Amino acid sequence: MNKISKTLLVFLGIGILSVGLVAQTVSAGRYDGDIQSRVSQHLAAKKEFRNLHAATEDGIVTLTGTVGVYQQKVDAAKKVRKTEKVQGVRNLIVVSSNVPDAQLAAQLDRKLYFDRIGYDNRFNFVTVTVKDGVATVSGETRTDVGRDSALALVNNTPGVKDVVNDIKVSPVSNSHKFGRRDQLDVFTSD
Fold first, then answer.
1. Over the chain, what is the mean pLDDT?
2. How much helix, strand and coil, in percent to the nearest 5, is found in the chain?
3. CB neighbours of 53 closer than 8 A, spacing ≥ 6?
4. What is the DSSP letter of 65?
5. Angle at alpha carbon of residue 152, lines to 155 and 122, rounded to 5°
6. For every residue of 77-122, which 3-state class applies, written as one string?
7. 133: left (phi over 0), alpha (psi -120 to 50) or beta
8. Distance of CA 184 to the CA centre of its chain
9. Number of H helices, E strands in the chain
10. Which residues make Cβ contacts (< 8 Å) with residue 156, sequence separation at least 6?
11. Residues 31-95, CATH architecture
């Protein structure tokens, strides 16, 4: 009898969990029409997104089509993700421009070399490699601004199909922190 009770209890638990999963799927799918119309309006509103198409299933939007630069692909996914009731985004957008890898790498190296001239860029060391249109950006920058600036340059370069960010931001030195604390101690001690 005890074995039958345990088996029945297990099946009851599985049944309760299954009902919860079905209810969650039904509730996400319930808004598909509304999500589809809102996403279509958002995409039609911007000129660079007019070649994109969206399909919605269970609250997940699948984006397809072509764009000119990688940043437009990223921006489209962000815009759709912010739409109310969207559970997720599958970004299958293709970047349409084609540039040979060697030419693209040389172009990106030149852009990164002159990035942020006069803004402490001498402390930044950023390199890029390109394979099949995928740009891998690596190195080290002094600040988040230097990293973000380098990534923005790469994201907006025609021919880049995807970006891998391997840039590290240098930590603030401890001597800088200690210097500030010593200065504060001078003002607070009597």
1. 83
2. 55, 25, 25
3. 63, 64, 65
4. E
5. 130
6. HHHHHCCCCCCEEEECCEECCCCCHHHHHHHHHHHHHCCCCCCCHH
7. left
8. 40
9. 6, 7
10. 69, 70, 71
11. 2-Layer Sandwich (3.30)
Which residues are bridge partners to 126 per DSSP? Answer: 139
Could you give the CA distance from residue 124 to residue 190 in angstroms, rounded to a whole number? Answer: 42
Read off the DSSP letter of residue 47: G
Q: What is the pLDDT of residues 14-57, one digit of tens each?
A: 777 766 655 555 555 688 899 999 999 988 999 989 899 999 99
Tell me how many degrees the CA angle 25-29-32 measures, rounded to the nearest 5: 155
The rounded percent of the chain whose pLDDT value lies above 90 is 48
* C-beta separation of 163 from 137 below 8 A: yes
Q: 101-169 in CATH: which number?
A: 3.30.1340.30
Q: Which amino acid is at 95?
A: V
- Predicted TM-score (pTM) of the model is 0.70
Q: Give me 190's structure tokens.
A: 């009597």
pLDDT score of 113 more than 70: yes
Check: CB of residue 168 under 8 Å from CB of residue 126.
no
